[in-house]
What does this fold into?
Amino acid sequence: MRLIKFFVYLALPLLVAMPLLKTSHASDQNLTPFLKEALAERTIGSDKAKLTVVEYFSFTCPACGRFHTDVYPKLKEKYVDTGLVKFEFRDFPLDQWALRASALARCVPSKFYEPMVSVLMKQQSIWAGSEDVGAALLKLGQLAGLNEEKARKCMDDTQLLDGIIKARMEGNQKYGIDTTPSFLIGGKRIKAFEFEMLDKAIQQELK
It folds into this structure.
């Protein structure tokens, strides 16, 4: 688990995004159709599922990478694919490149969002550790079907970045999220990301 000192890590994306917060004041009602879609909830699973599991994650968080590579597939197979759980992804970027990666993922069609998250997480050490992180992300965006121009615009879109940051702040203020990955299971915050502990928490809520 990657534990975060709130006053340190909250400042990272906010410092990067200060110009965005100053220049982007459009209300939700004034968002373009593209932005409304890009900032919409990202979920998988049945809307009739008894339980919703929410994950707060950062694309540059190593623990998040391990969760999506080793644990998430097991949870998906056991609970999402069987219709018991709906899984929701919520961005909690820890730095500017996690923020840009979040924007890039939200620019692909929503039906391809989960596969894009999987690719970014599985290749996290490659793109996040490259000498030119922006260029590495652009290449992944192109593999997902975005041309370079569109991928670049997505990662630089001030309203999209602003919306992601606002959602991050809401997660901290409303649910006390300061750790990634963190989960809401039955409305209860869970910091653990090991399969056994999440499995136990889900089972308790499904009783």
